[in-house]
Amino acid sequence: MDTLQLKNKIIQRIIQIDDVNLLKSIEQVFSASDKNILNFLSFINDKKQLENIDETENFTDYIKEWVKSM
Length: 70
Hints:
The protein has helices spanning 3-15, 20-31, 34-51, 60-69.
């Protein structure tokens, strides 16, 4: 997948979200520095690999904890 396709996929996923709290959390992630975003996403990826979770898990709690630690 090229960059444009990835961006469009992310945008389409965000458009589907109706939960205001989740959208606020995503906005805070995007407001962070690239280094902090990378650290957060690495954390989620590691957790996903360790727990072998599925794609439907709600990451709101993880995002809230990460934002608190910023």
